[in-house]
């Protein structure tokens, strides 16, 4: 499944709270159609930056927040519920911007859940995506 051949691609973006490379986000999103819908969480860093970049590119942006139900279901780890809800929005792709995915909790969890659901995941660790994973 190639992003350029799809109509309304749904992309979930997540990553490090210290991610500041808006250019990497813009370059990656530029590979998707202008009708792409971007879902992101409520953490500072990559989540918010992705929303800003996608909005500036004219893409549809759907910010999502951790809920009380997430906190009740996953005490101390409400991000797990948010990750599940973002994927449940019909995600076609997951983009993760993180310099060290193995040290991550939330981003790594999202990648694992997406892969288990056969949703392609691209992990961008710097200005070039050095690790790509997808389930076909």
Describe this protein with a few key phrases.
136 residues; alpha/beta; Rossmann fold; six-stranded mixed sheet; 5 helices; 6 strands
Sequence-ordered SSE layout with sheet pairings:
Elements: E1 10-15, H1 22-29, E2 37-40, H2 46-56, E3 60-63, H3 68-73, H4 78-87, E4 93-97, H5 106-116, E5 121-124, E6 131-133
The third-level CATH topology is Rossmann fold
Structural class: alpha/beta
Give the mean pLDDT: 89
Low-confidence stretches: 127-136
Percentage of β-strand residues: 15-25%
User: From the structure provided, what is the oligomeric state, counting identical versus distinct chains?
Assistant: single chain
Widest β-sheet, arrangement of strands: 3-2-1-4-5-6
- Please bin the fraction of helical residues: 25-40%
Main sheet record: 6 strands, mixed
Topology, number of strands: 6
Order of helices and strands: EHEHEHHEHEE
- Counted by DSSP, the helix tally is 5
How would you sum up this structure, described in words?
- It comes from Herpetosiphon aurantiacus (strain ATCC 23779 / DSM 785 / 114-95).
- This is DprA-like DNA processing chain A.
- Keywords: Plasmid.
- With 136 residues, the protein is α/β, with parallel strands linked by helices.
- The protein has one domain: Rossmann fold, CATH 3.40.50.
- It contains 5 helices and 6 strands; from the N terminus they run βαβαβααβαββ.
- The chain has helices spanning 22-29, 46-56, 68-73, 78-87, 106-116; strands at residues 10-15, 37-40, 60-63, 93-97, 121-124, 131-133.
- Strands 3-2-1-4-5-6 form a 6-stranded mixed sheet, with helices on both faces.
- β2 (37-40), α2 (46-56) and β3 (60-63) form a beta-alpha-beta unit.
- Mean pLDDT is 89; it is low at 127-136.
